[in-house]
Design brief:
Layout (H helix, E strand, L loop, with lengths): L8 H19 L4 E9 L2 E9 L2 E10 L6 H4 L3 H17 L9 E9 L2 E5 L4
Parallel strand pairs: 3-4
Antiparallel strand pairs: 1-2, 2-3, 4-5
Length: 122
């Protein structure tokens, strides 16, 4: 009988590793962690952080290299829409008014060993 991890676990473990790296990177730049892997019926947000009064919804993407467009290019319009909807759910759950709460969507693109932080990416 063959042993090993079920399909998909290696990918999830890799994703978790880069999310933790991104979190540490952002913490080192003064952001504060609010939540990790926020999940609702409309989507998932990798990291929710705060910078001053601004709530920052962070998408973390990893690619081994930029040969096929890189990590930043992998965030499609459909993915952006899912993130916006999930962020709206988070704000409602926390009782925050979308019109009054300053928010932005950042991208942390990891390519190889490099980390690129793109504030207000979309």
């Amino acid at each position: 009988m063959a042993t090993g991890s079920p399909p998909g676990n290696d990918k999830r473990a890799c994703g978790d590793q880069f999310e933790r790296r991104a979190e540490q990177y952002l913490l080192g730049r003064g952001l504060r962690l609010e939540a990790r892997n926020y999940l609702c019926r409309l989507g998932e947000i990798d990291l929710i952080m705060r910078q001053g009064d601004t709530l920052v919804f962070v998408e973390v993407r990893y690619r081994k290299n930029s040969r096929f467009g890189g990590a930043a290019a992998s965030v499609t319009a459909a993915k952006q829409q899912r993130l916006r909807r999930a962020a709206s759910c988070y704000l409602q759950m926390k009782g925050l008014n979308e019109a009054r709460q300053s928010c932005r969507f950042d991208l942390v693109a990891c390519e190889g060993d490099l980390i690129h932080w793109i504030p207000n990416a979309f």
